[in-house]
């Protein structure tokens, strides 16, 4: 079976609720802040790997191709201001975690929020849940590489995309038991 994907479409607040945003002049796509600094990506990676170590799984490595795809998609999200998973993720080509905030997010903030879903995960009854999917993607044992993208919309809100290869959250029997290990004492 394929990767578990629950598509959640979240319309984010705009300056004029209920109307489309016209992006022209200073608020045009060209003025959006589209950069993922190497420092930001490395911070996200470090926090991932610190958590992965607690679960006894190998560290991830940054991948240029995944970084490019994550950055492109973060820019698309910042332009549309609709938080939904990409077709790349929906097709099972990669795993994907998304984050949005009305402020400039640090890499540690984002990764810590995703990991905090551990409180909702049952290691006694493992499996996919929309309440734990970010956490399980982060610590999925079989995942080897990741990419990170970050973009800011003209209103200052930020969108972060993390992509994983191979994708986690595979719902085949036994996969969660094999790939989402409890933290070591």
From TrEMBL:
Its main location: Golgi. Residues 1-36 are annotated as: Disordered. Residues 39-172 form the SCP domain. It holds the Pfam family CAP. Keywords: Coiled coil, Golgi apparatus, Lipoprotein, Membrane, Myristate. CDD domains: CAP_GAPR1-like. It is a lipid-anchor. One of its GO terms (cellular component) is Golgi membrane. It is found in: Golgi apparatus membrane. Belongs to the CRISP family. PANTHER family: CYSTEINE-RICH SECRETORY PROTEIN-RELATED. Homodimer. Interacts with CAV1. This is Golgi-associated plant pathogenesis-related protein 1. It comes from Lamprotornis superbus.
